[in-house]
Automatic annotation (TrEMBL), chain A:
It comes from Streptomyces afghaniensis 772. Residues 3-372 form the Aminotransferase class V domain. This is Putative Cysteine desulfurase. The keyword Metal-binding applies. It catalyses: (sulfur carrier)-H + L-cysteine = (sulfur carrier)-SH + L-alanine. The keyword RNA-binding does not apply. Keywords: Iron, Iron-sulfur, Metal-binding, Pyridoxal phosphate, Transferase. Belongs to the class-V pyridoxal-phosphate-dependent aminotransferase family. NifS/IscS subfamily.
From TrEMBL, chain B:
PANTHER family: MITOCHONDRIAL TRNA-SPECIFIC 2-THIOURIDYLASE 1 (PTHR11933:SF5), TRNA 5-METHYLAMINOMETHYL-2-THIOURIDYLATE -METHYLTRANSFERASE (PTHR11933). It catalyses: S-sulfanyl-L-cysteinyl-[protein] + uridine(34) in tRNA + AH2 + ATP = 2-thiouridine(34) in tRNA + L-cysteinyl-[protein] + A + AMP + diphosphate + H(+). The active site is at residues 111, 210. This is tRNA-specific 2-thiouridylase MnmA. InterPro entries: MnmA-like, MnmA-like_C, MnmA-like_central, MnmA-like_central_sf, Rossmann-like_a/b/a_fold. Belongs to the MnmA/TRMU family. It comes from Streptomyces afghaniensis 772. Keywords: ATP-binding, Cytoplasm, Disulfide bond, Nucleotide-binding, RNA-binding, Transferase, tRNA processing, tRNA-binding. The keyword Protein biosynthesis does not apply. The gene is mnmA. Residues 293-365 form the tRNA-specific 2-thiouridylase MnmA-like C-terminal domain. Catalyzes the 2-thiolation of uridine at the wobble position (U34) of tRNA, leading to the formation of s(2)U34.
């Protein structure tokens, strides 16, 4: 089995699994005042500190959520509501068109139900938003912008975006910038304080932690209107009893992601380069998606378009040989749609149907790459014969 | 004759899974027989509905999920293939055009011919599969010399060979119907599904046209073709009433005519003829529906085309009985005469010819000749 879909989810790190199971047996609501509660709270606060350190943030800036999707929704909707409440003129939302659906659909919802005007920022062929494009978009009317949201690194094509420069551009006008850093964390330097962001999303299971836990790193001066109302946990921004074992485990994974980032970039990056070379050798007309410069893309990501093939066919053929990857595009009832990311970068819609994303991770080996190198050529040949339906 | 419903060599099989109980059990049986099975759900609607509304169709996200759930339990890979464009072109548009022309199409048959055993089969073969497996009740029998025949299912009550009668030899060569040998009731298939841990065991059967979710065919057609008022006349051409679109009627239909005055003899009246050109619907007594012969076009044969006239049994609709006929191929058209007059034969429907349990071929009914005076 060659698992090449770490961007979907990556195996849990043994240390994270150990932390999770160690806390599953303990009783204690972190909001309770008695000894059990105090013990739970201590675990949570230590985890908060660990994660804050791994992300260059203050502990008070870590708001635990149920995952990346919730953190994105909280940032986008919550900041929109709070900024509009402060000044009703602020109804414009600026977003990159290559965002994950957790951001894209939240933004779209604001447009449909909350009177927001959505403006998608232009991107280059690698899916990158230029800081001047953001500057120009805000400058058209700085007073009506509620927020801007641009991901740190793209989940499909792996392009890393210039977040620091984008945050600077937003800061010139006092506009809060949120960034979905779910894919970036652990692969490229992510430092919240240095970034100048207002808010940033991270997720547990993408870095070797458990599912169902994530965090919104939220600058202290920002108070988004909650999406979940209740007991007032997490700065009254995100109510709900804290998931102590998941939080403890997430923190361990987060610490290791930061500690091992350089190793990861070097070793997994080299493996990725080998994978790209192998695919190109087997299928000379395969088109590498995203930034061809290794510095400009996530070290674990390789994205290809195979002209004349349907991504679904390739997926089936590779899966039958124990090679697991993804088309990288979203599904409606499991029906593949051309990726919005590729369409935004100007890819022809027919070409956009023939894509595969290979994403490596901490358990990837040379054998995985070799298995793919052997299988991809015949698979592409066969998928081409099946054609586009 | 060698009876080999389950070929012994392991095959790479693509199982079409609708989300219903039959196709799930069929896929499970194929896997259990040692074949390398992959499940596929066909997305046939461009805008699938999230949840079932009323009668069960095959076009909801819920059905797709049920099929995936079954595939997971069986332990086979599962994919959803988007054939919505092909389905719309080849099945839905054809359905509308046929009604518009005053005929009564069978979209399930059309789907088997153009989608399941054409678009789907071609893609499957190109991707290296050997066969497409479905939950139809029918049998493929392969002889020692390699020739093959399509037969009625062992259980006549469940038999679905009629909707497969359009398949030609090449299509049959790559078809697998694991339920064909089952002499059972649906309850037993459900019991088998339950035994296999398939959650679809309790799911209601599908009867309706899958792309008309609410079961309202007239509403669907009215929406597509618009309302167009025309006359309802008797056999002599006397105007008895009006209708809102001739396409809304089927030969043999009795209900919904809304004619105020009763027939002189007090007997019920039936739709005898639909003329889309004049937008006229002709009604008359039941015995005027009796048909003694018909001409059918676009014949397809399971194997070699017969030469000369032959005696067969024929089936004229999906759940219809058998009737004795003599049939002959004349200039590429099938001329059929009935031993006894049959009632309510609608142009557009398929006639499937049988020799005993063996499907000989099928054709689309183009015109009929009345047993009594007059031509419909």
């Amino acid at each position: 089995m060659a698992y090449l879909d770490h961007a979907a989810t990556t195996p849990m790190l043994p240390e994270a699994a150990e932390a999770l199971t160690a806390h599953l047996g303990a009783t204690g609501n972190a909001s309770s005042l008695h000894a059990s509660g105090r013990q739970a709270r201590r675990t949570v606060e230590e985890a908060r500190e660990t994660l804050a350190e791994a992300l260059g943030a203050r502990p008070s800036e870590v708001v635990f959520t149920s995952g990346g999707t919730e953190a994105d929704n909280l940032a986008v909707k919550g900041l929109y509501w709070s900024r509009r409440d402060a000044d009703p003129a602020r109804t414009r939302v600026l977003a990159s068109p290559v965002e994950h659906h957790a951001v894209l659909d939240a933004v779209h919802w604001l447009g449909e139900h909350e009177g927001a005007t959505i403006e998608y920022l232009p991107v280059d062929i690698h899916g990158r938003v230029h800081p001047d494009a953001l500057r120009e978009a805000i400058a058209r009317n700085p007073d009506d912008v509620a927020l801007a949201t641009v991901m740190w690194a793209n989940n499909e094509i792996g392009t890393i975006l210039p977040i620091r420069e984008l945050a600077d551009a937003a800061a010139e006008f006092g506009v809060p910038l949120h960034s979905d850093a779910v894919q970036a964390f652990g692969q490229t330097p992510v430092d919240f304080a240095a970034s100048g962001l207002a808010a940033m999303t991270v997720s547990g299971h993408k870095i070797g932690g458990p599912y169902g836990i994530g965090a919104l790193i939220l600058g202290r001066e920002h108070t988004p209107v909650p999406v979940l109302h209740g007991g007032g946990q997490e700065r009254h921004v995100r109510s709900g009893t804290l998931d102590v074992p998941a939080i403890a485990s997430f923190a361990v994974a987060g610490r290791l992601a930061a500690e091992q980032r350089e190793w990861f970039a070097r070793e997994i990056g080299a493996l990725r380069d080998a994978l790209v070379a192998a695919v190109r050798e087997a299928v000379p007309d395969a088109i590498l998606g995203g930034d061809p410069d290794p510095e400009g893309r996530l070290p674990a990501n390789a994205h290809f378009t195979f002209p004349g093939c349907e991504g679904d066919s390739l997926l089936l053929l590779l899966d039958a040989q124990g090679i697991e990857c993804s088309t990288g595009s979203a599904c409606t009832a499991g029906v593949a749609q051309p990726s919005h990311v590729l369409l935004a970068t100007g890819t022809d819609p027919d070409l956009a149907r023939g894509t595969l994303r290979f994403s490596l991770g901490h358990t990837s080996t040379e054998a995985d790459v070799e298995a793919l190198a052997k299988a991809i050529g015949p698979a592409v040949e066969r998928a081409r014969a099946a054609g586009l339906t | 004759m060698t009876h080999t419903p389950q070929r012994s060599r392991p095959l790479r099989v693509l199982a079409a899974m609708s989300g219903g109980v039959d196709s799930a059990v069929a896929a499970a049986r194929a896997a259990e027989a040692g074949h390398d099975v992959t499940g596929v759900h066909l997305a046939l609607s461009a805008n699938p509905q999230s949840f079932r509304t009323g009668a069960r169709g095959c076009c909801t996200i819920e059905d797709s999920r049920d099929a995936r759930r079954a595939a997971d339990v069986i332990g086979i890979p599962f994919y959803v293939w988007d054939l919505a464009d092909r389905f719309r072109e080849d099945v839905v548009e054809d359905f509308v055009a046929e009604y518009e022309a005053g005929r009564t199409p069978n979209p399930c048959l059309r789907c088997n011919e153009k989608i399941k055993f054409a678009a789907l089969l071609d893609k499957a073969l190109a991707l290296g599969f050997d066969a497409v497996c479905t939950g139809h009740y029918a049998k493929v029998i392969v002889h020692e010399d390699g020739t093959r025949e399509l037969h009625r299912a062992s259980d006549m009550a469940k038999d679905q060979s009629y909707v497969l009668g359009v398949l030609d030899d090449r299509q049959l060569a790559h078809a697998m119907f694991p339920l064909g040998d089952t002499v059972t009731t649906k309850d037993e298939i459900r019991a088998e599904a339950e035994r296999r841990g398939l959650a679809v065991a309790k799911k209601p059967d599908s009867h309706d046209i899958c792309f008309i979710a609410d079961g309202d065919t007239q509403g669907f057609l009215a929406n597509r073709l618009g309302r167009s008022e025309g006359d309802i006349v008797d056999e002599s051409g006397n105007r008895l009433g009006t209708h809102e679109g001739a396409y809304g009627f089927t030969i043999g239909q009795r209900k919904g005519l809304r004619i105020g005055t009763p027939a002189p003899d007090g007997k019920p009246r039936y739709v005898l003829d639909i003329s889309p050109v004049t937008n006229t619907v002709t009604v008359g007594p039941a015995d005027a529906l009796d048909v003694s012969a018909l001409t059918a076009i676009k014949p397809r044969w399971c194997g070699v085309a017969p030469t000369g006239p032959g005696t067969y049994t024929a089936q004229l609709r999906a759940h219809g009985g058998e009737t004795e006929v003599t049939a002959e191929l004349v200039d590429g058209r099938l001329e059929v005469s009935f031993a006894e007059p049959v009632r309510g034969v609608a142009p557009g429907q398929a006639i499937v010819l049988y020799d005993g349990t063996r499907v000989v071929g099928s054709a689309t009914i183009a015109s009929t000749r009345r047993a009594t005076a007059g031509v419909a």
